[in-house]
Amino acid sequence: MASGKRDQLIDTALDLFCQNGFHATGIDKILEKAGVARMTLYNHFKSKDELILATLRRRDEKFRNWFMRSVERRAASPQERLLAVYDTLQDWFSDAAFSGCMFINASAEFGAPDDPIHLASAEHKVLVLKYLRELATAIGVRHPDELADELMLLMEGAIVMCYVAGDPGAASRARSAAEKLIRSHLKIEAPIAD
Amino acid sequence: MASGKRDQLIDTALDLFCQNGFHATGIDKILEKAGVARMTLYNHFKSKDELILATLRRRDEKFRNWFMRSVERRAASPQERLLAVYDTLQDWFSDAAFSGCMFINASAEFGAPDDPIHLASAEHKVLVLKYLRELATAIGVRHPDELADELMLLMEGAIVMCYVAGDPGAASRARSAAEKLIRSHLKIEAPIAD
DNA sequence: GACGATATAGACCGATCAGTCTATAAATTT
DNA sequence: AAATTTATAGACTGATCGGTCTATATCGTC
Q1: Mind listing the pLDDT tens digit for each residue in B167-193?
Q2: B36 close to A (CB below 8 A)
Q3: Residue range A1-45, CATH number
Q4: For residue A19, how many other CB atoms are within 10 A of its CB?
């Protein structure tokens, strides 16, 4: 293992950043909880921002992996999977450690659009959207990307309403709205390919 | 004017908190930009958190006022107004100083659900939702609260996708999704009152 | 056993943090 | 004009910030 300490640092930072935010989490807290020496951190990362970027990359990988697995375990057909997205959201929201979307939170703290941390957050959202596009394409609708965009809005809205407004029912409401939007798109027949 | 300095402090803090975040904005920066002495701040506010709460209250008041005025100026019928919500969002997003939703950002930095700052953010979202409920009720739909919840998800989703993912088209996509959801609700006739 | 890489503890840096205190000076009210 | 409130500049606190440096120690590899 070339970088066991590096992994420890990222995992610990992931916890702390999610719990307490980025600016509010000092390097010292991370070192203490990870049980790692100061210079070990700075041998692996040039700066705190680099550590933040590394945690975002790990979070993106873990989250999307978990998310897609959960959706695909729940349902087999593309249409059912698009709805399973919101059941999976429900699971996420129900987790005691749920602390909102790390990428929305990161964008809040690093607001400059060209900040690497903000850009990494944007990239995560693009990748999630891409997944919805795949599912939407698979159900053979006339405008799959449009449908995916709309379902994405419901997903992000649910995250916000659950986290900020403390509404635990946001996911199921998003689900029923998604049903209506999907139905609406299915009525517009796809043209016969020639 | 009993509190000209107090107002200056709140307005300045509002700018800086939106631009740079809460933790990243030091008291000294606010004092310098506001041109106000240190003790003047602490005579008006017990702590930085109290100042943050005051800025959130002002932001809530200014934003909702602007928002509702804009919606009502744009359209007269409740149904058109529900769609004008998303045109108003578009205006907001197009502002060069757009820096996301201050309340979403505040919740990101003050994540504890019982934190007064988080609670104030939740309250803002509830008040916006209430406004959507009024509009939804006025169009005589069978389940107005349900429709309002769904439109709220689209609104919050648009804010996130525009700010985090940098998608300037989020508002118009939300608008077309809203059309579909409203149409879907209008098909379920309201019962005749007796 | 020797070597090079990796990790260690902890001192140290200048800067900044939120918040307190004091003594003076404006501005309002009476 | 006198009295009271409000604001001022700036020193000061103790804590924390991100980051650097050094000297020692542990580790895997040859």
Answers
A1: 999 999 999 999 999 999 998 865 655
A2: no
A3: 1.10.10.60
A4: 13
